[in-house]
Design goal:
This protein has a domain of 59 residues. By secondary structure, it is mostly helical. The chain is built from 5 helices and no strands.
Length: 95
């Protein structure tokens, strides 16, 4: 993310949404470093190793707390009704 956007344009509520995923900015670098460590360790070892034997990262762990994001028909009807109300309100404000 460009620093100018973060410093000048980003809203406070956006920061809270992004903070849990900040580690993803350096994920590639960590993966590359681990691969280099794996190659170095494997060439000096007679034991068969896997990349995750060197180090395991939090993003590789099984994420069991993923939530179902499917939408029920009741939710769909409720949101459609809410959209109609907002559209009606916006049309009234344009007059």
């Amino acid at each position: 993310m460009p620093p100018a956007y973060v410093m000048d344009e980003m809203r406070m509520y956006e920061i809270g949404c992004l903070m849990p995923y900040l580690y993803l900015a350096s994920k590639d670098s960590w993966e590359q470093a681990r691969l280099m460590g794996y190659i170095s360790a494997q060439t000096h070892s007679s034991k068969k190793m896997s990349v995750s034997d060197i180090i395991s990262f939090p993003w590789e762990k099984d994420n069991n707390n993923c939530h179902d994001t499917s939408m029920s028909n009741a939710d769909k009807r409720r949101l459609e009704e809410k959209a109609k109300q907002l559209e009606k309100m916006m049309n009234q404000n344009e007059r």
